[in-house]
Design goal:
Helix content of chain B: 40-55%
Oligomer: heterodimer
Strand content of chain B: 15-25%
Structural class of chain B: alpha/beta
Shape of chain B: globular
Strand content of chain A: 25-35%
Radius of gyration of chain B: 13 Å
Radius of gyration of chain A: 16 Å
Strand order of the largest sheet of chain B: 2-1-3-4-5
Mean pLDDT of chain A: 86
Distance between the termini of chain A: 20 Å
Largest sheet of chain A: 7 strands, antiparallel
Number of strands of chain A: 7
Largest sheet of chain B: 5 strands, parallel
Low-confidence stretches of chain B: none
Mean pLDDT of chain B: 94
């Protein structure tokens, strides 16, 4: 590893900030959820308690990362119904697919901000938040309320030497 | 006019196909590039294919490359509809043979503008 690269890794990851994440989420909401209640960003952190659904996509490349959207599990169905504009009987697959696509859209746009990014991974949806390595850095976070429930968008980037980082 | 919507997300297929149907398109859907190639083989050839980039089995760039390598599909217009927003990725897609590029998230209006640029807005529809 060259000194230049080592120096780069020591720099704060200020190319992905809360403001940029907020703009991406805002654009997505305007495009696909404008017919629903407003998404209300919060200046305070609201950790989701109880059952959770989390969708994530990985960013590979020189500075690996992971972009996650987490919601209260009960929000999964209304979120899918809103995205699909379908109030009929939706399946768990619809819910996972919709949440995964939300993560995919946010992740793809975040990837464009990360220098020397490699391919974007396919969305993974689970009932637990992805684990992170001790040196990973939370580069950006957005907590927002929709229909009275909380969503959290997070961007984690590998800290230190990204190749040593198993969490991201 | 007919459109093939290629995306591994059922939600996104529904969003894109719904917008195209409102414009007067008949739509068919495929969940990956390989499925889309089968749809083309079984015909008839659509006027437009919207293509996601990141998909399992066969990604969108591979699909575009394979379509452009087949002279039977010359009349098919290819539009990438993807989250891959970097300039370099756009250049790669266009170099491989895509005609237009639309970044998610997109509005129905931006989709109509791209179709207008391609001359693929059905008669009576204005962007």
């Amino acid at each position: 590893m060259t000194e230049l690269v080592e120096e780069f890794y020591d720099e704060p990851t200020d190319y992905v900030e809360d403001e940029a994440l907020g703009q991406i989420v805002d654009a997505m909401w305007a495009s696909y959820f404008a017919h629903t209640e407003f998404l209300l960003p919060s200046f305070e952190q609201h950790d989701i308690e109880g059952d959770i659904l989390a969708a994530s996509v990985t960013i590979s490349g020189a500075r690996p990362g992971i972009v996650t959207v987490s919601v209260e599990r009960t929000l999964g169905l209304p979120l899918a119904a809103a995205l699909l504009q379908d109030d009929g009987e939706l399946t768990d697959e619809d819910v996972y697919d919709s949440l995964g696509e939300v993560a995919n859209i946010v992740g793809g746009n975040i990837k464009a901000l990360v220098p020397d990014a490699g391919p974007l991974g396919l969305p993974v949806v689970s009932t637990a938040k992805p684990l992170h390595g001790a040196s990973d850095r939370l580069a950006a976070r957005l907590d927002a309320n929709w229909q009275g429930q909380w969503l959290t968008f997070e961007v984690w980037l590998a800290g230190g030497n990204g190749s040593e980082n198993a969490g991201v | 006019m007919k459109a093939l919507v290629v995306d591994d997300s059922r939600a996104m297929r529904k969003i894109i196909a719904g917008a195209l149907r409102k414009l007067g398109y008949e739509t068919i859907e495929a969940a990956d590039g390989a499925e889309a190639l089968k749809a083309l083989e079984s015909g008839p050839l659509p006027d437009l294919a919207t293509v996601d980039w990141n998909m399992p089995v066969m990604d969108g760039l591979t699909f575009v490359t394979q379509v452009r390598a087949n002279r039977d599909y010359r009349a098919l217009t290819l539009m990438m509809v993807t989250t891959e927003a970097e300039h370099g990725q756009i250049v790669r897609a266009l170099a491989a043979g895509a005609h237009e590029y639309l970044i998610k998230p997109f509005t129905v209006e931006s989709l109509e503008e791209k179709l207008s640029l391609l001359g693929l807005l059905p008669e009576g529809v204005q962007a």
